[in-house]
Amino acid sequence: MIEVSHVSRLFGNFRAVDDISFSIPTGEIVGLLGPNGAGKTTTMRMITGYLEPSAGTIKIDGKNITDDIVAAKSKIGYMPESAPLYPEMIVYDYLCYIAEMQGQPLEKVAKLAEECGLKEVMHKNIGDLSRGNRQRVGLAHALMSDPEILILDEPTGGLDPNQASDVRNLIKEIGKTRTVIISTHILSEVEMMCSRVIIISKGKKAADNSTSELKEQYGHKASVLLTAGACSEAELIASLQNIDCVSSISKCVGEQIESDKNAISIAINLNSDSKEIRPEIAKIILEKGWNLYELSMKKNSLEDIFHEITTEGSKK
């Protein structure tokens, strides 16, 4: 459905997007991620036809977007981070206005009100709605022409947890029949909504994998957080550093243990997450007669993987 081939975009001498290629088939929800200024918003604007690539081609349903921009745009629904709504208009009137502007039958308004959960607020002014409901109005706007592709920029930004959950569920339902691209900084949401992640860093594509493949490739790192007492830091480290699969041990700041003001907190970094070593650590601590206050394992999250990929000096 979407084919991006060797696309670049320059603003003067600044190369915001640098030779990016990827394709997205119908019915896939893809997370487009990157640090601020990485080029992801520019990429989305080129896909929607708002910006023209400086080099490369973008095809929508097999057709070059620059050959027939009107036909390409008709297949795309786009909701920017702050949906451009008219706050003084009533929701019903606004959606009727959008339907007329896009040549859609007014019957679509009632259908979208049902689909986007707006039935209870159709009589209200948009400016009086909660941010969550304004996002729903923005989604209804983006869906008015029955687009085959939906592009959403920070769709849950600024929403409370309940509102964000409702919008996520709505997007997942929409994604069953459409191609959806989501740009967001909330990486936990990417794991919940997206089957695939494209990461852009400094204008270049840094990763393009399913979330499970990313975790398989980069999520091998793990650490054990340990807080113990009645021992010295040197004794604690010496007793654990020869355990199989321990790569390094470092001191970390833990919460103060009221019963032991001198408790030591350390992070035990592992070279593999496949081995469960907490029972072995606990046995050593107890055999030494020391106090064990905390023992937990932390594996690489998508946030850790994102940081590794996009931080200067990482492998990817």
In words, what does this structure look like?
By secondary structure, the chain is an alpha/beta fold. The chain contains eleven helices and 14 strands. The protein has helices at residues 40-48, 69-74, 91-101, 107-115, 131-143, 161-174, 187-193, 211-218, 233-240, 278-288, 302-310; strands at 2-11, 14-24, 29-33, 55-60, 63-64, 76-79, 149-153, 179-183, 196-201, 204-210, 222-229, 246-251, 264-270, 291-299. The strands form three sheets. A six-stranded mixed β-sheet has the order 6-7-8-3-9-10, sandwiched between helices. Strands 2-1-4-5 form a four-stranded antiparallel β-sheet, with helices on one face. A hairpin with a 2-residue loop joins strand 4 (55-60) and strand 5 (63-64). The chain is elongated, with a radius of gyration of 25 Å.
Features:
14 strands; 316 residues; elongated; 33% helix; alpha/beta; 6-stranded mixed sheet
Quick rundown:
It is built from 11 helices and 14 strands. With 316 residues, it is α/β, with parallel strands linked by helices.
Secondary-structure map:
Blueprint: E1 2-11, E2 14-24, E3 29-33, H1 40-48, E4 55-60, E5 63-64, H2 69-74, E6 76-79, H3 91-101, H4 107-115, H5 131-143, E7 149-153, H6 161-174, E8 179-183, H7 187-193, E9 196-201, E10 204-210, H8 211-218, E11 222-229, H9 233-240, E12 246-251, E13 264-270, H10 278-288, E14 291-299, H11 302-310
Parallel strand pairs: 3-8, 3-9, 6-7, 7-8
Antiparallel strand pairs: 1-2, 1-4, 4-5, 9-10, 11-13, 11-14, 12-13
